[in-house]
Amino acid sequence: MSIFEFLLEPLDYAFMQRALAVTVIASVVCAVLSCWLVLIGWSLMGDAVSHAVLPGVALAYIVGAPFALGAVLFGFLAVALIGAVRDTSRVKEDAAIGIVFTTLFALGLVLISVTPSQTDLTHIIFGNLLGLSHGDLVQVLLLGAVTFAILVIKRKDFTLYAFDPTHAHAIGLNPRMLGALLLGLLALTSVVALQAVGVVLVVAMLIIPGATAYLLTDRFGRMLVLAPVISAVCAVVGLYASYYLDAASGGMVVLSQGAAFLVVYLFSPRHGLISARVTAAKRRKLVAA
Description:
Elements (H helix, E strand, L loop, with lengths): L2 H6 L5 H27 L2 H21 L3 H21 L5 H22 L8 H4 L7 H20 L1 H9 L1 H6 L4 H40 L5 H26 L3 H19 L5 H16 L1
């Protein structure tokens, strides 16, 4: 099989074309947002919100409302509950996050299990890349475009908020509103990504690309370019691997991102584990000489 046949064969199928489009869109949007999540230290919050949207999505399906509406409402509900538990008890924030997101996630599972439906709602949990409809593609495209546009337009404000919220407040910005907007975008992005990999693996797409780019550069502007590029490449590699290996497509996409992180973690020129040890060994030799 030639390289062209290898690349073109999966695209002979309409479901693979839709899967590729949705995966790339979701990967790019998640990767851009992940840069701020990693920088602010919101990895656990990303985990909480991405899982807490499940009951919102399930309820939206039950009442016939848009998935995005239910996801955003429950995303903000999760944040409010975490804050309430943290501020009104001795429980620390990490424990509050664990309590809230696991409880809401369990509620989502119960709602899915008791909801009579001709549609298999478990795809919300585990993803269903190869079963996406044209309507799913349109929804992902619209939500992804809106989220990406807001992130690009507000990137300077978000970056200042991430580095120095006090300075942001001093120049007239509202750090609380910026944080709330980021959380709302996190909920929307979770809806985009769950179409591709399901709720269980969304957090990986929201954290791994930003963490990978963070090891490659010290400049945030470059992170915003590197993260989506790496994520999109991993999306394509993972989808092709799932096709030829007959494996779970969402799992392969995330596995590809994990593999990319491992390579960067070991061999990044400035921050890689092996690269740093090699550089240290060379310095010791120069000092000894």
